[in-house]
Amino acid sequence: MRQWPPAMQLMGIGWYVATCIVFGVVGGVLLDDELGTGFALTLIGLALGLASAGWGGYRMLQDMFAAQAKQRQDEQRRESPDEAPADDEQDEEDRA
């Protein structure tokens, strides 16, 4: 399966971060309204949203970087067989 381009992956991470923060704040506001706790639960929701956004964003970036590194290694492996016969030829010359 083909990977998404890096720009699309970064947009996905941005949406994830925004969604986590918005859900945390909105959930906190709704709970504050129901329970009459002022804005304490809004701050807790914001903190939970930021924490989940930070952790999830970090994990997504790590996966993206790992996929790009693997892709670079695969490209280097595809290019290196051209050089391999030259090493074999040199070994044969050394034996002669």
Task: Write a structural description.
The chain is an all-alpha fold and 96 residues long. It has one domain. It is built from three helices and no strands. The chain has helices spanning 6-35, 40-79, 84-95. The radius of gyration is 25 Å and the shape is rod-shaped. The two termini are 47 Å apart.
Based on the model shown, name its key terms.
96 residues; mainly alpha; 3 helices; 85% helix; 0% strand
Largest sheet: none
Mean pLDDT: 85
Query: How many strands appear in the DSSP assignment?
Result: 0
Distance between the termini: 47 Å
Q: Classify the helix fraction into a percent range.
A: over 70%
**What is the radius of gyration?**
25 Å
Poorly predicted regions are: none
What's the number of structural domains?
1
Layout of strands and helices, then pairs:
Blueprint: H1 6-35, H2 40-79, H3 84-95
Helix pairs in contact: 1-2
Outline of this structure?
The chain has 96 residues and is mainly α. It has helices at 6-35, 40-79, 84-95.
